[in-house]
Amino acid sequence: MARTKSQFVCQQCGYSQSQWSGRCPECNAWNSLVETALQVQSSKLKVQNEGRIFKLSDIKIDEAGRVKTGETELDNVLGGGMVAGMVVLVAGEPGIGKSTLMTQVALNSYGAVLYVCGEESAAQVAIRVKRLSGSTSPSRPPSPKIGEGKGEVFLFESNDVDEVVQKFEGEKPGLVIVDSIQTLTTADLAGTAGSVGQVRECAQRLTAVAKRAGIPIFIVGHVTKEGNIAGPRVLEHIVDTVVWFEGERGQPLRLVRTVKNRFGGTDEVGVFEMTDKGLVGVTDPSRMLLSERVEEVPGSVVSVVMEGKRPILAEIQALAVPTQSPVPRRVATGIDYARMQTLVAVLTARAGLRLESHDIYVNVTGGIRLADRGVDCIGFFEPESIGEDRGGGRGRTSG
Ligand SMILES: [Zn+2]
């Protein structure tokens, strides 16, 4: 028999304790502990999950056994494709294109796909499928596998993880996609959908069945701009692979980045362009990023940044405008705000630029975020060109 006990679970980091407190002792977040009822299995039941022992030499690793998703950019990020029983968390902000990518993967699949739509109705997914399958027209670069042996996609409207697990084991599809983990619940827990307890428990159940059945599964998880919603953070240690889907809304560029991969490296970055026909892999992102660049414009610099193993040319724009305000504005888009402040401080102290009387705006075009510190040094290479503009109406700095 199961007994019920309650725990206070931090909605930010997943830390749990038996007492309520105003501040999480683990991550110091305020007011983040929420009471969650847990059903703890009795020790008798746990015996069933006893581990098995394998001889190392008996384990066969078959690289050829990787199944392609049909999206080359995604396959590279996964380490060459999907592996049997692989659990992939696809994390990103709502509306960034996670469902679009997952729908494309489903359409490319050889075998039957179980697409669990908790977020949308089956009809809504079907509308997207119709829009995307129109994209197999010549305008879209052909995926290596698409059309060769398309599997059937089964849409399953459900918010009950146990129902999903049952279908999973009963139907034995070739691939399972869950969109999204925040909509699933189990009746065994009292928490609402999207709470840390539910999200974690549902992910654990899906992972267990994926491993048992040897079927790969993609789990979609939403994060907010701050990345602090219950979900991806608490799931990272449960799943095999975590890919982050990045990009600015209104901009076409999307980056898919691995932050964890038990089946490959984490230094690959996939690049997609969001089009009206869906996501299209981009092999030369630099060309796309620089396509609208006007040359010889003050305040525009092209820099080489490393995204994973891939060098990318990105345009950094900077504008310094004289201001009367005692607190000048500093706006950084696409680069770290504190890094920009540091560079401004260095330019002020060492290059003699009177930046304290200027508003400064720095922008990276294309909606990408630069984490590579290699872009920092540009400011030092061109100090004189900034000096020329001193006192002028339009100043110039470099990121
Ligand atoms: Zn916490």
Description:
The chain is of the alpha/beta class and 399 residues long. It folds into 3 domains: 1-46, no CATH class; 66-283, 3-Layer(aba) Sandwich (Rossmann fold); 288-388, no CATH class. Helices cover 24% and strands 26% of the residues. It is built from 11 helices and 16 strands. The protein has helices at residues 43-46, 72-78, 98-108, 122-133, 161-171, 196-213, 232-235, 285-290, 337-350, 378-381, 383-388; strands spanning 3-10, 16-17, 33-40, 87-92, 113-117, 153-156, 175-179, 217-222, 241-246, 253-261, 269-275, 278-281, 300-307, 310-322, 330-333, 358-364. The strands form 3 sheets. The protein has a 9-stranded mixed β-sheet with strand order 6-5-7-8-4-9-10-11-12. Helix 9 links the parallel strand 15 (330-333) and strand 16 (358-364). It is globular. It starts with a strand and ends in an 11-residue tail after the last helix. The model is unreliable at 42-48, 135-149 and 378-399 (pLDDT under 50). The structure holds zinc ion. Residues 10, 12-13, 15, 24, 26-27, 29, 32 line the site of zinc ion (ZN). Zinc ion (ZN) binds next to loops.
- Which residues form runs of ≥5 with pLDDT under 50? 42-48, 135-149, 378-399
SSE order, one letter for each helix or strand = EEEHHEHEHEHEHEHEEEEHEEEHEHH
Report how far the terminal alpha carbons are from each other: 62 Å
In this entry the ligands are:
zinc ion
- Strand percentage lies at 25-35%
